[in-house]
Predict the structure.
Amino acid sequence: MTQHPNEGTCPFPHSSTPSAAPTPPLTRRHDQLSKTGASIELDERGVYRVHSFQAAREILRDEGVRQAGFMSEMASKMGAMKNAPVLFAEGDTHHAMRRDTARYFTPTSVATYQPMIAKLADELVAELSAKGEVNLDDLSLKLAVEVAAQVVGLTSSRLPGMEKRITSFVDGGGDSEPGSAQIRNRSQALSQQLNLGLFYFLDVKPAIEARKKERRDDLISHLLDKNYSDLEIMTECLTYGTAGMVTTREFISAAAWHLLQNADLRSEYLHGTEKERHAILHEILRLEPVVSTLYRRAEQDLEIDGVSVPKGSLLALNVQEANTDEATVGERPLEVCPARSLPRGVQAPVLAFGDGHHRCPGAFLAIRESDVFLRRLLIWNDLRIVTPPSVSYNEVVKGYELRGFRVALGKGAGQAASA
């Protein structure tokens, strides 16, 4: 690929000059960056660390690799399943599953969720208005869980609190690397089993029973039509639901953090068209990919960027580095530049939603719901950060967590945005 640098500026959509105060990455993991500058490095554990965009995209599009991260090892131990989870299936089986479920995530389908998302967003902003000060990460969790639950079909829970059951399961631990020999203690293992059981009996099982009586336009109804077992449906709920809920929660917080710190960017966002607003969100996501590392296992010998990778090897793709590869994204790769010019075939979030046949199916939905909520939140002129979030990392999701993000409204607040 030819070099495709920008022309020395990072303009906003309506501006010919760079931001007066460009915001650098807020969640970047410096301990995961390339140690030698090479596009692929073999570490002391035998893991191939991939840092460049070109090499990472080539691997993601290669049919000779399989998923190796995000609970794939756990899913493989959940008993014999006739239908493998879509996140971990490969080949023709995976392609067929993606075709069958694609309709739930098309722009047309997402548009039907718009009234529901808008109502939820209005309720959350009203909560902020009533309390005056809240944890933004709690509001973003409520939104992400409710939206994902509607799409998946997890709407018949026996008890409230599904968001806590999901986050406690994801927070329940996980190996620092797929296939590592790390052993969690007995209490951690029992805690995760308990959380999994509660999620099944309080959330998944009631949804299955309700849809056996009456089908709805959601993923669980579709899986019942395909004769999936309860175990298989629960596994899909974990992969589709949990992935969508957890990652969208974090992105909303990261985007709000950028927009509240950068007045110029916030103004451009609030006054932009939907296309321009989405471009800003995509650019923030490029800089702050929620999942910082994607894992693949080589199913055959590979040759990647001049490096021979033997069959069975683990590949760790550094998304944050690939997304800031200057050879692809141009100059000033560590700044938010919504009008950034990219080479043909490279999407605005670069690899933040993945690539190839396992690219995130809910990408458009995640951006749409984030936009609906953030517009309503940021229109309040006196909204301010009370306490910036602390940044930590989740070893199950392999991404950042933003917690304790306190925001507040002062007197004389503005008016909520219209739908």
Observations:
- The longest helix spans residues 230-261.
- Residues 1-8, 14-20, 412-419 have pLDDT under 50 and may be disordered.
